[in-house]
Amino acid sequence: MMRLPPFDYLRARTVEDAVKHVADHGPHAALVAGGTDLYPSMKRRQAEPKVLVGLQGIRELRGIHGGARTGMAIGAMTLLDDVATHRELGRHYAALAVSAGLVASPPLRRMGTIGGNICADTRCSYFDQSLAWRTALGFCLKKGGDDCAVAPAGARCWAVSSSDTAPALWALGARVRLVGSTGERTIPIAALYRDDGLGHVAKEPGELLTDIRLPPADGWRSTYLKLRRRGSFDFPVLGVAVAVRMEGNVTREARIVLGAVASTPREATVAGQGLIGERLTPEVIARAAEAAAVIARPVENTDFPPLYRKRMAGLFVRRALREVAGLPELDESAERVG
User: Fold this and answer.
1) What is the pTM of this model?
2) Structural domain of residue 232, as residue ranges?
């Protein structure tokens, strides 16, 4: 049985409390929300904070407010299950509701929070092992080693983004609010991430993600598809979020974002731009899917071979765009060709 290492626990009752506790303890402190990601990481000795600052007691970080007409706000401590089952989100921000409902398993979605999933650590099959396994192999860049086990000649970590909700929120044009000891700032969620397996979240030291802001949903349609070996529990091997704003049958704006193909979610900008001014016909969708697959460059550090995952990126974009266009699902022969 793997056990947690010793640590002190500080229960914050306000955002100011949490920020102060983290500032007081510096790099030895870590914020904990539902703990579904952090505690297993601590058991494997991947993370070893000396002080945990608990956010469960901060009521202002919970809840879903607003509406599709004016935009919505979601507290970072809102449970993933509440996001997945919220009627307004499901109707007008489907990509987010679907992605939240595909995280892990039902019990974990009733513990895990949307803020925690947005900030979930990157994954790598060489890093996500027991301490004994990693000691025998030799520690990698992500835990104080000198080399990346995936690309030993490189100078960076290639661990992949593991969040389901991040690509969906990116596609929906969401913004996030961060509060720290020097004040607060609101940024596009795209600016929250870096393509770096070690420091993939671009928060300042001690900053706390407090809430997520969704813009008005006028004319937007969206969805999210996830590839994983099992139908539940597993992290994404590929996540595809698409959002399109329609005027009649014509696309006026479009975003296609891929998850789990790099250390950050990646927007297929060229593919999205190719949809603007077009009707979502099968031919237009096929071209966009081909363009989106170009940016998927998975490496061999998670489940399934990289070439298979790259092929699935194009196929899943086709499926997602056909879904928002109201077209029938691809049949088996189309999938083999695609």
Assistant:
1) 0.95
2) 62-118+160-337
